[in-house]
Specification:
alpha+beta; two-stranded antiparallel sheet; about 20% strand
Length: about 55
Amino acid sequence: MTGERRLMVLPVKGTAMNLVVARSEGPPFHRAELDRAARIVEVVSRMAARFEPVND
């Protein structure tokens, strides 16, 4: 592939991970797309934290 890559990097709270979304075509990510993606990551992070196994 050639050309510009557009990246969105979102930290996943409570982990050492980031969600990386790349776009090779089209316009830069719009603010609304960033906000929606951040909200999805926040909700999924909270759900995952609720279901973490308990260490006895």
